[in-house]
Amino acid sequence: MSDVGNQSCLSTAEDYTSFLVCVFHSWEEWAELGKVEDYLSVIEYLLWVFTPLAVVFILPFLIVILIYLSILFVHVYKRKNQLKDAYCNNLWDGARKTLATLWDGHGAIWHGYEIHGMEKIPEEGAALIVYYHGAIPIDYYYFLASVILQKGRTCHSVADHLVFKIPGIKPLLEVFSVMHGPQEECVRALRGGHLLGISPGGVREALLSDETYPLIWGHRRGFAQVAIDAQVPIIPMFTQNLREGFRSLGKLKFFRWLYERFRLPFAPIYGGFPVKFRTYLGDPIPYDPNINAVELAAKVQQAVQSLIDRHQQIPGNVLRALLERFHTKHKEE
User: Fold this and answer.
1) From CA 115, how far away is CA 143, in angstroms rounded?
2) Could you tell me whether strands 155-158 and 195-198 are parallel, antiparallel, or unpaired per DSSP bridges?
3) Is 182 left (phi over 0), alpha (psi -120 to 50) or beta?
């Protein structure tokens, strides 16, 4: 019937415009665009119904974000006098304390970050801090921020050479006294009375360690020789639930081969979970002229392993680490 109607329409078209209208209607019926319009009407109706519901669920998240931004602002504002004095004394000191305040606020908000044993960091004088390296050493950033804010000191740091190749990062590394790590430069920093942080496991430990928290130090003992040459104590450090915050796929064969063969740390990292972080500082290991670098390295590794055994449940569990945000039960208890 529609074909007959279309033919009649075409045959009775009086002008070119009427002809085009008839052709369009014929094509519309042949393509069944009427059904498409019905589908679009249904979709439009569903959007009209569910958009308010989506807004209802999205707005609370926006409010939560706003609340956390407000908390971060208050965290920075309450240190305004300290920051003002820092900027008056030294521009870079002001930048350090401002960034430290931001990182300290992030750690407090996102991870409920705590440090146990901060009194073991000397108020003055040198010390070497040796720590376990997570997939991302974000705990060490929080630690640096706490040292700046609580001790008024800048802890120098040793980083992998790849860090120095990141475009635009050089000013930030200079502000926080990050060095590549030749032993002579490390000894010079310690003899100058500075704190120095180093992870013997480095990138290898970041990629290849996992939720069982193995220390992957190999035969590295340069850090021990640095402490001996500078005649400074070593303070072991470990952060609970670090691997539950961020995890690496570096143990997969391809990514491990890529690193071992080309030294390319390109293993994917996932996470960012707001798990509970607690950093534990062990008792300082004093300088002893009667032991060599091999013996001292083994002693330090044993001290870090002792912190892991005492404070970390093995294997680590993301859900358990998340629940620790709501209670304070420690493994050692």
Assistant:
1) 8
2) parallel
3) beta
The model's pLDDT over 311-328, given as tens digits with 9 standing for 90+, comes to: 999 999 999 999 999 876
What whole-number distance in Å separates Cα of residue 273 and Cα of residue 275? Answer: 6
Rounded Cα–Cα distance for residues 57 and 242 (Å): 31
Q: What does 109-128 look like in DSSP terms, one character per residue?
A: HHH--EEE-GGGS-SSS-EE
Per the structure block, which two tokens stand in for 1? 């019937």
Extract the tokens encoding 2: 């529609």
pLDDT single digits (tens) 172-199 = 888 889 998 789 999 999 999 999 999 9
CB atoms within 10 A of CB 119: 10
pLDDT tens by residue, 214-267: 999 999 999 999 999 999 999 999 999 999 999 888 888 898 888 888 888 888
Return the active site residues: 133
Largest Cα–Cα separation, the chain: 113
Distances (CA, A) of 146 to 97, 237, 254: 10, 14, 38
